[in-house]
Amino acid sequence: MISAGIATVVAALLPPRCPGCGTPVAADHLFCGGCWGELRWLTPPWCATCNRPLPEERGAEVCKRCRIDPPRHAGIRAAVAYGAIARRLALKLKYGGRGGIAAPVAGRVAAVVPPGVDLFVPVPLHRWRLWQRGYNQAALIAAAIHRRTAIPHDPFALRRRRATVPLRSLGRSQRRAAVAGAFAVPDPTRIAGRSIALVDDVYTSGATAAACTQVLLAAGASAVTIVCWARVVGSGGD
To answer: Taking the model in full, what pTM does it have?
Structure first.
């Protein structure tokens, strides 16, 4: 009874708040109506190869980018398109020390995980970046999805063996060069024959995901699907 009373007082003083804007909401990890309406949830029709959104009339064809440069991954499953609210949550989680944001993010990401995945592997940080930040946001998301789905996760299956420069200001080819050879699988037996969901917060150019996919497949993974909170998409689907 005492615990229940304390919980009631805490709930009154600290009501659940929208992870996007902080507005009080009915329960933990829920978005308010305004933030929910501004998020662009990604659903078909999309590219049959990379799940990039396509105009309604084009259906599930292969997008121009995949026709020119077919990816080795088995698709990119993102909950939302990168926009103002999605960006706000990603920044809170990545740089704002708001580890709790991983829970509502994971709730939406879990809904887009394709059937057949049997292991979540987060994109790793280099040890110096991990020391500076104190946590890996991708690992927090992966752990939270694991708690929702009971699918195993392994934060140590993939290692970043050298630090890389920030990719934000680099072009596509420069990004690929920056991450080439940056990742390794220390123990291939952890992933051999597994269908991997590579977990990250935001998918932009795909350079990091491609580098991770390459080493995971080389180490024996049967397939690698990218799962993330948000992805940068163009307006025309190509």
So the answer is: 0.88
